[in-house]
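Lecture notes, part 5. Sequence design as translation. It can be helpful to think of inverse folding as translation between two languages: the language of shapes and the language of residues. The source text, in structure tokens, appears below.
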């Protein structure tokens, strides 16, 4: 199995070449790409408002389309929630205005997109599509399902740190991905509510449980939690595994180099079971958006999720009231690592692209500071991967995101991005984690033997 590529990322590496905000380490049976109710005839038609005019802070390389680039590019998007959907539409509108190349956006609900992307890419995919950095990107590149865009990187490379380029590189040393932004998984809370209640930020797990006990007395769900869609619980597994066993063991486990039957993994689920009384007691019936509303409406005191949870705070005053902190330490030798998930989202070109020149012109634009600025003007819950992006308008939420990424000694991508897709999917870890949540006191040795058996049953790569 291929090496994960994203390894130890020091603070110095994160800050190299610019501000901390440039840091990384920062799909129905097939997509409606083949024509669906969510398909929009052009980017201009899909945008709810004209793209903001935001100048990059530093002059970026030209993103003018090559003479041969024209016509329409089809674009498969998993940006199905309102805020990112508008943001990407704004970007595509600006691209069309700049190049006269139209973009047809085919939007598919995020989870469906992810669960069916393998079949989608092997059938009749769009020219370009949204995806993630990490193992999952390299997997599709190695399978011949993505187009080498190293020629695009020759023009946009100066806009990104070495860490982001590494995150965009396949096992063959070629680039297949253009990063747009990343975001940390953190514990989110409402500042004014905590001030009212006199709550203090917990630094250790003992502090966390004491706070949780107080929140219970105050009639709150201490930690909002949802796993109806299968993937959010992966973030909790990731952080507990990194806090207990360290980053190297975690990425080794994701790569199949460590065993799920290892006592170290059992310790993760034992710790999780001890903490579950502080979690929402009925997570399998809620989506992450619903749990975010529990936090916003002050039914829950905290929420461990990516900062994209801020998308649900559509009122500006409420959004401004959000803040967050790193998941507490567990008193192990890995406390100093302060490893976190900080996934990178971006774009790829299908190996079956019908308008390859147009798709590459789009990739070049998406790798510009202009594109990053326009996107973040609408979705201010992430931080730009592009180190030329204008950070002067970052809100407090974004500044804190950049700071916490920079302060983290180890950066992971997220379980379903750091391992093979047939293991992470609905029939794999999503189902296993839901089984655990239904019965946390079950025989963990038998449970973990089942996970390892499933992994071993998968075809060689």
């Amino acid at each position: 199995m291929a090496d994960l590529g994203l390894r130890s990322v020091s603070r110095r590496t994160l800050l190299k070449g610019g501000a901390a905000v440039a840091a990384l380490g920062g799909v129905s049976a097939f997509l409606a790409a083949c024509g669906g109710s969510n398909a929009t005839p052009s980017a201009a038609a899909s945008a709810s408002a004209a793209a903001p005019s935001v100048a990059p802070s530093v002059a970026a390389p030209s993103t003018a389309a090559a003479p041969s680039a024209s016509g329409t590019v089809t674009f498969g998007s998993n940006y199905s929630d309102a805020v990112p959907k508008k943001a990407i539409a704004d970007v595509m509108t600006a691209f069309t205005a700049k190049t006269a190349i139209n973009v047809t956006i085919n939007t598919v609900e995020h989870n469906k997109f992810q669960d069916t992307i393998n079949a989608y890419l092997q059938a009749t995919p769009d020219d370009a599509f949204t995806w993630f950095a990490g193992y999952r990107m390299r997997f599709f590149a190695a399978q011949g399902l993505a187009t080498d865009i190293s020629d695009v990187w020759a023009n946009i490379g100066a806009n990104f740190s070495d860490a982001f380029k590494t995150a965009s590189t396949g096992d063959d040393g070629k680039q297949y991905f253009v990063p747009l932004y990343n975001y940390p998984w953190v514990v989110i809370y409402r500042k004014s509510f905590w001030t009212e209640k006199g709550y203090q930020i917990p630094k250790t797990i003992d502090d966390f449980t004491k706070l949780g006990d107080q929140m219970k007395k105050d009639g709150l769900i201490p930690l909002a939690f949802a796993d109806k869609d299968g993937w959010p619980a992966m973030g909790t597994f990731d952080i507990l595994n990194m806090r207990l066993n360290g980053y190297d063991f975690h990425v080794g486990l994701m790569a199949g180099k460590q065993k799920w039957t290892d006592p170290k993994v059992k310790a993760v689920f034992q710790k999780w079971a001890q903490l579950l009384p502080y979690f929402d007691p009925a997570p399998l019936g809620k989506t992450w958006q619903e749990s975010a509303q529990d936090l916003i409406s002050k039914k829950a005191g905290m929420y461990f999720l990516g900062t994209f949870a801020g998308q649900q705070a559509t009122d500006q005053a409420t959004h401004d009231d959000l803040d967050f902190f790193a998941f507490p330490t567990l008193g192990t030798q890995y406390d100093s690592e302060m490893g976190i998930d900080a996934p990178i989202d971006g774009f790829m070109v299908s190996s079956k692209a019908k308008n390859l020149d147009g798709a590459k012109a789009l990739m070049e634009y998406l790798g510009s500071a202009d594109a990053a600025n326009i996107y973040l003007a609408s979705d201010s819950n992430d931080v730009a991967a592009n180190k030329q992006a204008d950070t002067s308008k970052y809100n407090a939420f974004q500044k804190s995101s950049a700071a916490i990424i920079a302060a983290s000694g180890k950066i992971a991508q997220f379980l379903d991005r750091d391992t093979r897709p047939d293991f992470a999917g609905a029939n794999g870890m999503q189902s296993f984690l839901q089984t655990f949540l239904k019965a946390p006191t079950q025989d963990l040795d038998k449970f973990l033997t089942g996970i390892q058996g499933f992994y071993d049953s998968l075809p060689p790569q």
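The translated text above is only one of many valid answers, since several sequences can fold into similar shapes. Residues 185-341+427-457 form a domain with the D-Maltodextrin-Binding Protein; domain 2 fold (CATH 3.40.190.10).
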